[in-house]
Amino acid sequence: MIKFENVSKAYEENNVVKNLSFEVKKGEICVLIGPSGCGKSTTLKMINRLVEPTEGAVRIDGKKVRDFKPEILRRRIGYVIQNIGLFPHLTVKENISVVPKLLKWDKNRIDQRVSELMDLMGMQESQFLKKHPSELSGGQAQRVGVARALAANPDIVLMDEPFGALDPITKSSLQNEILRLQKKVQKTIVFVTHDIDEAVKLADRIAVMNEGSLVAYDRPESILNNKENEFIKKFVGFDRALKKLTRMYVEDFIKPYKSVKISDSSELIKREMENEIFVWVVDDNGNFKGWLNNDDSIDFTEHIESFIVKDIENFQVSPDCSLKDALSVMMSENVVTLPVVDNGKLIGEIRLSDIVGNEKNN
Ligand SMILES: Nc1ncnc2c1ncn2[C@@H]1O[C@H](COP(=O)(O)OP(=O)(O)OP(=O)(O)O)[C@@H](O)[C@H]1O
User: Fold this and answer.
1) CB-based contacts of 278, cutoff 8 Å, min separation 6
2) CATH code given to domain 251-357
3) Nearest to 166 by CA among 132, 143, 196
4) How is residue 227 annotated by DSSP?
5) Residue owning the nearest CA to atom 7 of ligand 1
6) Partner of 159 for a Cys bridge, out of 80, 81, 176, 230, CB 3.0 to 4.6 A?
7) With a 6 A CB cut-off, is 36 part of the ligand 1 pocket?
8) How big is the CA angle at 168 (ends 163 and 173), to the nearest 5 degrees?
9) Nearest C-alpha to atom 25 of ligand 1 is from which residue?
10) Per the database record, which ranges form the ABC transporter domain (predicted)?
11) Does 158 sit in the ligand 1 pocket, CB within 6 Å?
12) 89: burial class by Cβ within 10 Å (0-12, 13-18, 19+)?
């Protein structure tokens, strides 16, 4: 889909990108990573011709980008950058409409597309469309930036450190948003970052760059397992095992569980709990309601409802949650087992020992 063929860029004597050759497949997220100044942004900008190569060529579907008409490139390639991406004097709606207007779409088509995009980004139209960028939080502004890049339905999206300036929680939720969105819209995305955790989380393939050259181009698992290359080893850091958990998901580690129903008799529950430290509690529809600790506090002559620990808001994980996030919930809640809940329903449990041993449920 996107192919770099022996691409180099020099500014006078300074070779900032050196003989790059690699290919990004259709529908994949390629993350360019490397230290500051290694040539990531320059590489990205050679795809949409904000920068022209000194040597070599970038091709999209076999055709050199320098042979595309500018308006075709604009339609095919969305572009998201950090902070300064939005026009401050334009409203959210006007910002999202910039490329469709350049492409001379009619008003109805633009309105409809803006609505779709707001919906896709989980933003309420009535609340946001008339606002200016200065009235948005960092996370909201970046969502609008992504919506704007997707406006003309490009098949390629370039993202240059889009979440670099955000706090860790907003950053993580936008990364999840990108992964969710990508499942739906399947764009070819080239993403620049210098955050290895972000790269491991998002990438189908990671391009590691150093001083203008490509050091490695591989799947995140292989980059994390690379122990030969000193530069990669240093870049990945000491916590490579933890980083691998970012790419593993709870759904592959779900184990059977023991549960009782709120409507069960106290006698039955007492029997069920005999050799357990605790049991999960569900209602008659299988919805997760909490758990019962097998200690002296339970009086089985009474109905068990009042003994259920119902503090379940933060005490659960969904099947699509990464093992790293599951581990983080376990640590913050100080437990070794968590209920796996899908749309309110208890579907299994996940245990610390399975995470540590990477023991799948197959
Ligand atoms: N227009 C330009 N004129 C001269 N030198 C430039 C120009 N643009 C970039 N450079 C130089 O090219 C090198 C690579 O820059 P680039 O922005 O691609 O790096 P980067 O890896 O994206 O860095 P960062 O992570 O800090 O954003 C740098 O040394 C930079 O100073």
Assistant:
1) 291, 292, 293, 294
2) 3.10.580.10
3) 143
4) -
5) 11
6) 80
7) yes
8) 70
9) 36
10) 2-236
11) no
12) exposed
124 lines ligand 1 (CB under 6 A): no
d(CA 252, CA 245): 12
Write the CA distances from 93 to 177, 259, 278, 317, 318, integer angstroms.
20, 49, 52, 35, 34
Going by DSSP bridges, is the β-strand pair 14-24/259-261 parallel, antiparallel, or unpaired? unpaired
The residue whose CA is least distant from atom 23 of ligand 1 is 37
pLDDT tens profile 6-34 = 999 999 989 999 999 999 999 999 999 99
Taking residue 210's Cβ as centre, other Cβ atoms within 10 Å add up to 17
Topology (CATH) of 2-247: Rossmann fold (3.40.50)
Residue to substitute in 41, 50, 52 for testing ligand 1 pocket (most ligand atoms within 8 angstroms of CB) = 41
Pair of tokens at residue 60? 């999209």
Nearest to 112 by CA among 103, 100, 122, 130: 100
Q: Which atom of ligand 1 is nearest to the CA of 51?
A: 1
Which of 185, 141, 186, 189 is CA-nearest to residue 163?
Answer: 141
Residue spans of the domains in the chain: they are 2-247, 251-357
DSSP-derived secondary structure for 1-28: -EEEEEEEEEETTEEEEEEEEEEE-TT-
- pLDDT, mean over the chain: 90
* From 42, 158, 160, mutation site for ligand 1 pocket: most ligand atoms within 8 A of C-beta: 42
What tokens were used for 220? 């995140």
pTM: 0.81
Query: Do β-strands 188-193 and 156-160 pair in parallel, antiparallel, or remain unpaired?
Result: parallel
Higher pLDDT, 71 or 324: 324
With contact defined as beta carbons under 8 Å apart, do 163 and 198 qualify?
A: yes
Cα 193 to Cα 195: distance, rounded to the nearest angstrom: 5
Q: Is the sign of the CA dihedral 60, 184, 327, 168 positive or negative?
A: positive
Neighbours of 343 (CB within 10 A): 8
Torsion of CA 257, 262, 267, 269, to 10 degrees: 10
> What residues does 309 pair with on adjacent strands?
291
